[in-house]
Task: structure prediction
Amino acid sequence: MTTSTHKKKQEFEKRKQKAKILVEHLLDDVKAEPVYLMDIDKIEYADRKIETDVMVCAKDEVYHVPKVFTAECHNVKCDVKNQCPFYFQKRRVHIPYNSVELIDFTRLPNSKIGTVLRGIVPCESGDRKYIQTRVVQKITVQDLLVAPKVTTLTVAKENDKEFVVDELGREYKDKQVFSLKPLPKTNEYFKLTGWVKANPKNQIATLLVADLIPLNDDFQGFVMTDAIHDELKNFQVPEGQTIEAKLDEILSDLTNNVTQIYGEPRKKVLLSILLAYHSVIGFKFDKEMLKRGWVEVVMVGDTGQGKTQMFDRMLRHIGLGAFISGTSATRTGIAYAYQQVGSTWYLKWGIYVLCDGKLLFIDEGQCIKEEEWNKLSSGRSDGKIVASGIKAGEHYTRTRFIVSCNPKDNAPIDESMCGVATLKGIFRSADTRRFDLAVFLSCSDTPSDVIDIPLEQRSKTPHQITSKRLYLNVCKAWTRAPKDIEFTAEAVTHVYTVAKERKAKYEKAIDIPLITSDARHKVARLSVALASLLHSTDEAHQKVIVTADHVEYIKQYMFYLYDHDNCALNIYASLRKDVSSLTEQEYNQILAELRPHGCPLPEDAKTICLEFASNDVIERGHLADILDLTPDNVTNKLKPFKELHLIRSKSGKRGYKITAKFKKALKRMLNEGLLER
Result:
């Protein structure tokens, strides 16, 4: 190519670029490449058009920025003024949709807008101070915080550095992007299409979003059809078969063909996963609209017992739900957090909130900090979480919830007299109370001859509960409205009966409140989930019909779980009965021990009683001081109080904690004037 031809081509390109800004430039002819969000950091994607699937975690302000402006140059001394289309001519300039200036305008004061506009106008002399501009049209730009669309989050380690990764091992973190379309709401999936740019304020790779399309979850489009009717019949209990027998078919199928985690206790754990999956968002029970209809499950067990593996394989089999490890949750947040990017603060909703209407499994729940459980408290009870702080906000949290934990310090379940006691080392009572179901696994609960069998030697089970069928069954449960849930009259009556039986048996375990005054609601939620799993329905296959048989099975299932050696809630409640209730006979026995032969109460005993009346926990050294005794003598003085189950040693301190029984006795003693001096 000759020098003359090359110059002509350069001049032609310059004129093209000059002309381009004088007309609307839509860029629709450029095809977008599909890219994982974090890959926009790679230099090969700079200034390229891409598309990526994301979860919008938070949004900031909407900015009105210039899109079209007029420009006119009054530089009479310019050497190229005769070739300049702006010399004493007011021309409209269109800022392209992929222009980084659209980002630069955000948070920019009026006094600096003109400088950016003049920089857009082509000027061969480079002296732009004579250019006059006026904005004639604006568009919106919104600041968003987005994260890649994923289903599983865990922590990976490389070169002693830990970072959160998705199911394919790709790094997971947030990105600040800028959208030319205002976002209607956060915490939903979108396909973003836009241009990779370096943020002019800090040069961090970002995305200038030209278009965003909502990505609905697959289950949201579920519609019952005749073909689906036929698929779901595989879950129904045929005439002449019991619920127990049908569930054994389903659980054996999934155990042998999907999870491959064997043993009867493991089947019961698998059932708890299925019940959580098949629970519904809301329903009325006995004309009362419950605050929540979805089920929450806690699993506690020794390491290596298949809790995580079982759920992971079910997650892949069903294709719905999300998984996060407790260690990664501490980095990404579960409820909400305030995050600063540059000078912008975001209210960022956590994974629990993002799973509204779906299911979340948290592995290693013992790693979750107490402050996170505190934030989740109202969301777990009411289905709505409220954030107040730098930025206020609220969001629905109707999240089906499974939490898997190891005992504190990884102590084996078998080391506890009652495995249920391990919950006290992991959760506060208020957090435990919100779980509908607790399951416990021990390394010794399944014989080796059940586990250690080659696959080819195991009995073959026909695979009827296929991925497609289970997916459809869960979709039906997730799309049922309260009007679709019906209890038979016998079922309602039986729910109350079962709740009374459970409370009578377990409610004395007041410091592990799995069974509380809302026992009927827990029984109702689990019964609805069971009826949904077994596709108990009407002729149109739209409703979920709960019968007394479903309620009865839930009763037997919970008694099995809570009376099993792994849990032993029945034994724990029996032991706690001695420290929580106070009969007339027990009260008289206390008085007889503390004041032999009917004598007035000794002064030391009065002092001890009055101290415990004012304090739930007292250190031994404090009692030694006020009684003027040595610590060993204090121990002797407290011996009858311990033998009567009035106090118990406080773990971690050389002190004592008052029991509910002693509180009741103290109230009577004070009312009867026995502690007056």
